[in-house]
Amino acid sequence: MEEPGFTPRTDLAIEVGAILEREEKEVEDELDGVDLHIEPHENYKKTHIEIFSAAGEKIMSKPMGHYITIESEYLKENNPEIHKEIIEEVADCLRGLLPTHSGILKVLIIGLGNRQATPDTLGPYVCDKVLVTRHLAEFVPEAIDDSVCHLSSLAPGVMGLTGIETSEIVKGVCEHIHPDCIIAIDALGARSATRINSTIQISNTGISPGAGIGNKRKKLDINTMGCPVIAIGVPTVVDAATLINDTMDTLIESMLAESTNAEFYSMLRDLGDQEKYSLIREVITPTIGNLFVTPKDMDEVIMYLGNIIANAINIAVHPGITIDDVNKYRY
């Protein structure tokens, strides 16, 4: 059961309170056990967070590892030129997280999500777009060479439709094909509406299916799967209570700027985050329940995001494929 305190839903490392507070204060003080590096680019921003100690895990409430975030408003627009630039950046980030291997890499792509719920279709969509080659290596090995890895793809569905834990399905597949690495793609949740569909997070710490809507299943990571698990996620939903909380903050600041008698609005502004969030949840839960919000053009944006991620995976894991090759054939 969820705690009643201020616990806005987020799967993004850059939205952890310690990181947000550090950026708002514009200080250079390092967080204990956490290394933060920001690279501004013309069309996107890249943030690299590394958690390297138990102290860092406590501050971030996330396991040790690398968390790379690409932020750009162009992600949700039909802009092929900028998408090409972002594809190359995401591919480069993936290459840095892939395990070193002397032979041909065996990669398993896992598309987490529900094909029947549009905001949750990112994972299955990517599965349909990656270049699958394992069957070629097995049945027509003369047709391929070491310019491509041995890639398999699986969209296991959700427990509500299959009755099977996703981790059980993936574990069974791993025991049969023995991948060197898993790349899992899933929709995430954000605490800020501004990051919906405009953020890609890449990490090497695994993933919990269903985390985006607070319905975490058994985790997919190196301990449960027996091989490294790289997670790629995009926030596609925001908790309604969190959205209202942020809207209240904006409204209060606007009223303070325009009102001649600002005492009431000042009192609201001075409420603690926990008090405001708890009050909002108490008011809205009886009428709208545990509601999540997603943009109306989500079906179109999923195609942009899915193509970006799938193409980045293709050129990252297949040594012989370049950015100019990825859309040569439509499939």
List the defining traits of the structure above:
9 strands; 331 residues; protease; alpha/beta; Germination protease; 2 domains; zymogen; metalloendopeptidase activity; Rossmann fold
Can you describe this structure?
This protein has helices at 17-25, 54-60, 80-97, 122-129, 134-139, 159-162, 166-177, 222-225, 240-258, 263-269, 273-288, 298-317; strands spanning 34-40, 45-51, 65-71, 106-111, 150-154, 181-190, 199-203, 229-239, 292-293. By secondary structure, it is an alpha/beta fold. Strands 1, 2, 3, 4, 5, 6, 7, 8 and 9 form a nine-stranded mixed β-sheet that branches. α3 (80-97) crosses α12 (298-317), α9 runs antiparallel to α10 (263-269) and α9 packs across α11 (273-288). The chain is elongated, with a radius of gyration of 21 Å.
The proportion of residues forming helix, as a percent range, comes to: 25-40%
Question: How far apart lie the N and C ends?
Answer: 44 Å
How many separate domains?
2
Q: Could you give the order of the helices and strands?
A: HEEHEHEHHEHHEEHEHHHEH
Average of per-residue pLDDT values: 84
Named CATH topology of the largest domain: Rossmann fold
